[in-house]
Amino acid sequence: MKELVEVIAKALVEYPDEVVVTEKETEKSIVVELRVAQSDMGKVIGKQGRIAKAIRSVVKAAAAREDKKVIVEIVQ
Fold it and tell me: Where are the domains of the chain?
């Protein structure tokens, strides 16, 4: 899941070198944290959070194939 979020985020931002994705596994789910440059934050979130929702939907669909629950957090 980490690689999927990283590929999507790097395609969206102006500074792909500053994209950092970390993955934490808990008992019931996997938490994926996405960090981007401050100036790229709006590009990753989108108007009314539409791009962030789309990223979460894609990751959720990929996780469903592996029967896992994934939470994507966009962190400043």
Answer: 2-75
Instruction: State pTM to two decimals.
Output: 0.89
H or E element, residue 25: strand 20-25
Instruction: Read off the tokens for 20.
Output: 């950092």
Instruction: Taking residues 48-70, report their average pLDDT.
Output: 93
* Amino acid letter for position 50: R
Our CA dihedral for 34, 36, 41, 47, rounded to 10 degrees, sits at -50
Question: 2-75 belongs to which CATH class?
Answer: alpha beta
CA dist., res. 40 & res. 56, Å (int) = 18
Average confidence (pLDDT) over 5-29:
93
pLDDT, mean over the chain:
93
